[in-house]
């Protein structure tokens, strides 16, 4: 049973920080590319950050310099450190996984991801 369970969301003021976690189980986590995606009300789901099996990362322009994606393969856990949060970061945040042998690893395009978590809400107030 594949599971991706996000946690760490909440409400924070503009300029604040949050760290999201995604606990993975039911698949060979270290062999998968991982990503964080978000969806705000009335908006399409967008890629935020990705990390492939060798640790190479990619970020959406909107979060570069503010967010950091990382993974702890020993703990089967994905993280997203979010600093200098802005109201426009308000969204439901999802972690997602794709097999590391896929040519789409590292992509920030939602349909390229195979497994998805249930999401955790992040709300940033001004």
How does this model look, in words?
The chain is mostly beta strands and 126 residues long. The protein is 0% helix and 50% strand. The protein contains no helices and eleven strands. The strands form two sheets. Strands 2, 4, 5, 6, 9, 10 and 11 form a seven-stranded mixed beta sheet that branches. The termini are far apart.
**Per DSSP, what share of the residues sits in E-state strands of 2 or more residues?**
over 45%
Total strands: 11
N→C terminal distance? 40 Å
Question: What portion of residues is helical?
Answer: under 10%
Shape: globular
Radius of gyration: 13 Å
> What's the order of the H and E elements?
EEEEEEEEEEE
Structural class: mainly beta
Short description:
This protein is mainly β. Helix content is 0%, strand content 50%.
């Amino acid at each position: 049973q594949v599971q991706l369970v996000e946690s760490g969301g909440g409400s924070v003021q503009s300029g604040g920080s949050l760290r999201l976690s995604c606990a993975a189980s039911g698949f060979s986590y270290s062999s998968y590319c991982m990503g964080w995606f978000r969806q705000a009300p009335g908006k399409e789901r967008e890629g935020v950050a990705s990390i492939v099996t060798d640790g190479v990362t990619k970020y959406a322009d909107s979060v570069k310099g503010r967010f950091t994606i990382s993974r702890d393969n020993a703990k089967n856990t994905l993280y997203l450190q979010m600093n200098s949060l802005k109201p426009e970061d308000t969204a439901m945040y999802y972690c997602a996984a794709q097999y590391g042998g896929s040519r789409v690893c590292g992509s920030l395009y939602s349909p390229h991801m195979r497994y998805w978590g249930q999401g955790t809400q992040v709300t940033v107030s001004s």
